[in-house]
Amino acid sequence: MADSILQTIGSTTLMELRHVVPAGHARVLVKVEAENPTGSMKDRMALAMIEAAEADGRLRNGGRVVEYTGGSTGVSLALVCAVKGYPLSIVTSDAFSQEKRTQMQLFGAELTLVPSVGGGMTKELTQNMIEAARRISEEPGSYWTDQLNNRDQIACYLELGEEIWSQTSGRVDAFVQSVGTAASVCGVATALRRHNPGVHIAAVEPSESPVLSGGKTGSHAIEGVGAGFVVPLWDETIVDAIHTVSTEEAMAMARRLAREEALFAGTSTGGNVIAALRAAERLGPDATVVTLMVDSGLKYLSTDLYKDT
Question: Is the pLDDT of residue 20 over 90?
Fold first, then answer.
C-alpha cells in the first residue's frame, strides 16, 4: 500500500530491445521511465526540487510554485503540487503538445502560453518563457524552481544511475541520454562512474540546433531537449561523445519502437535509441548500452509524431 502517488515514482523497469538492434551490436537496454505516475522521468526531478525547497525553507506552506517548461516538467510539478497542496503557475508554449497542457490544467496548474514561431523550439522561445516565469515569480511567497539552474534535481538522477547499476548487476559499458537541463545525463553518469570510471557517456542533441557540438542554434521539434543554448548545468567534461539526431530521425525511430518493440514513446526517446544504436555498433556484441525511455507516446497523440500515422 502506498500512502501517496508520489511513493510510486522511480524503481522503473529496465528492458532489452529485441528487434531494432542489428546483429553484431551490443545489447541495448531501455529504462522505462514512462512507468512513472505522469508517464515521464521528470516526476523524479519535480519531486526532488520541491522537497529540497521545502527542507530549506525556500518553499513554505501556501507558497506558489512557478516554472517554465516544454510540458513534461510542468505535468510532473503539477502532480507533486496537487498532492502537496501548492498552487502552481506554469509558463509553456503552443510549441509543445496539447496533451501536456491539458494534463497540467487537470492537476490544477495555471498556464501562461508564450507563442512560438511556426511551432518550433528555439533559443528565443526558451528565453521568452524564462522571462515570463521570472516576472510571475516576483509575486510574494512564490518559489521558482528554475529547472535550468536548479541543482537539487541532480540527486534524483544519482538515484536513477544507482538503479541502472543494480539492475544490470554492474554490466554497463555505455549510457546515452538526450540533453534538456543536462541534469539527467550528468547525474546518471556521475553515479555510474563511481562504480566504473570507464563507462562511456554519450549526450544527444537535435541536429537542427547542435549548440553543444559547437554548431548554430536553430528550430526543432524534439520536445523537452535542445534549449538552443548551452544550458547552465551542462558539463562537457563528463561526456565522451555528443550525438546529433534530427527531428525526422527521432520521430521515425519512435514509431519503430511502437511497432517493433511495443514501446510507445516520445520523440526524444527515439533520438536516445538512435544514439544508443550508434554506441552499440561501436562497442560490439559483448557490451551493454543503456538509455532512457524518457516518456510516454500518449503525450504526443496530437503532434506530428503520431497524429497522421
Answer: yes
The domain spanning residue 55 has which CATH number? 3.40.50.1100
Q: What is the pLDDT of residues 283-305, one digit of tens each?
A: 999 999 999 999 999 999 999 99
Q: Which three cell numbers stand for residue 247?
A: 527531428
Catalytic residue list: 42, 268
pTM of the model: 0.95
Domain shared by 200 and 172, yes or no = yes
**Domain span including residue 96:** 42-144
Number of folded domains in the chain? 2
